[in-house]
Amino acid sequence: MNRQISRWTLAVAGAATLAGPVRAQTPEPETPSVSGNTTVHLIRLLVEQGVITEVQAQGLLDQARRDALAEQRRQPQVQEGDVRVPYIPETVREGIREEVKEEVMAQARRENWAAPNTVPDWTSRITLSGDVRVRNESRFLADDNSDLIVDFQEWNEDKYDVRLDDDTFPPLLNTRKDRENLMRIRARFGLEAELGKQWSAGVRLATGSSDSPVSTTQTLGGGLSKKDIWLDRAHIRWTPGAWSFTAGRADNPFVSTDILYSDELAFDGVSAAWRGTGMARGGGFFGTLGAFPLEYLSDDFPSDEQNKTESEDKWLFGAQLGVNWRFTDQNSLLAAVAYYDFDNIRGQGSQQCFLYLDYQTCDTDWSAPAFMQKGNTVFLLRDIALEPGNEAATAQPQLVGLASEFQLLDINLRWDTSLFRDYQLRMAANYVHNLAYDEDEMLEHSEGQIYNNFDFNGELESGSDAWMLQAAFGEGLDLKRSGDWQMFLGYKYIEPDALPDGFNDSTFHLGGTNAKGYFLGGAYAFTERLSTRGRWLSAEEVYGQPFAIDVLQLELNARF
Hints:
Elements: H1 2-24, H2 38-48, H3 54-74, H4 90-111, E1 126-141, H5 152-158, E2 179-196, E3 199-206, E4 218-219, E5 230-238, E6 243-250, E7 267-275, E8 283-295, E9 314-325, E10 331-343, E11 352-353, E12 378-380, E13 383-384, E14 400-402, E15 406-418, E16 423-434, H6 439-446, E17 465-475, E18 485-494, E19 515-525, E20 530-540, E21 549-559
Parallel strand pairs: 11-13
Antiparallel strand pairs: 1-2, 1-21, 2-3, 2-4, 3-5, 5-6, 6-7, 7-8, 8-9, 9-10, 10-15, 12-14, 15-16, 16-17, 17-18, 18-19, 19-20, 20-21
Helix pairs in contact: 1-2, 1-3, 2-3
């Protein structure tokens, strides 16, 4: 009997214990009570069955009340403003869990993180970008232009024979016949890859009619033939804090305009850029250093001789300091000063070379420019020996080189201001001066072999200065939002030897130096990624024979 009572006592204690948590989730009375709960009913049942006596039952009830009081004391006291959470049945909680689970999984599938191992890791480190431009271009040339403007790029490619012959002209540019409605395209596709903390790499492919450094535009037609694709960018970049170091073929690291460097020009080499802070309202100072190989001497030059030439490489070295200063909430000023040294790009006159003995090169052929547009003063590089007894018939295939050295001071200013509503005004100025320009030294260095840029009296006509003024007005000058628009106008003046003619904008005066004139136009953004632009550029020569060119461009630009 005592064992049976002990078992039932344990059962009652267990029931009281199980009942406790449930009681804690319901409103508690002011005094502890066990009346009407599972424990009381169980004790009464034991009395009715004769298992325990009334005295024993009363003892059990007293113990249950003491347990209830102790439980109440252990529970947090309800303070004013406390909120009680009602008891939620397990079935309801299970339903809520399933509903939330389904919603989360659906979102995970939409955002591609439900199963992270199903997507390659490299996709999270790659950023793709690109753009497509479709352009209609017309070129209008004045009827009174000179028809004797020499194409020196083609001259060097063909090694034009300068023997006096009334029936033979050097390669000449088209200067009088218009070219209307040329359909042209540009397509570029690139990627940037994160390689880890502070490291990245980039590659970009682009169209282009040739390997010209200043344009990736491709003229359509050609019997519907496929268009060329070129490697336009390939670089690795390290960015520790405010510094950025780049090696390879990358964007222009300097603040500049297109009178010096075309917007599409890529820089081969290495650069280091620093972007600091320190202005009271915002912005700060910046600086850039760079070294860029323009041309390496061929490893086997000259190919038809045993004795090879020592390295004669051409380089561009650049340094720039500037400040980007936001001096009020509506106004900012960017100012930059740069120095560029185009090392070893001037042509070098050769020693006497005996091409009539079947030699193919002269010792300074390497100094001819890899690429020219037009405008720079050039001179004949080769001192070609005439065959004895056959002087008049001796072939004289010539190359031309640059007569001036180029060490440039480049100053850029740009002011941005916000006007009424969302209108913006941007004004910019650029001045370039060739510190190495010296006419007397050019004449001496060329030994009287300068071929162009003479006036009617035989005097050299050139100069060392270039400048540009431009202004833009509109709403969202960067055309990054639907409905943004702008209008712009400007004026350029570029003397023949102010800068190398091979690297600047290929549209104004169709590229090069010895040009002056104005440009104007406008642009409108249909969407965030689609815009249109129209430009009119009117230019003529600064010195020399008349040569006026007007260019009209209408285009659609898409980026992604």
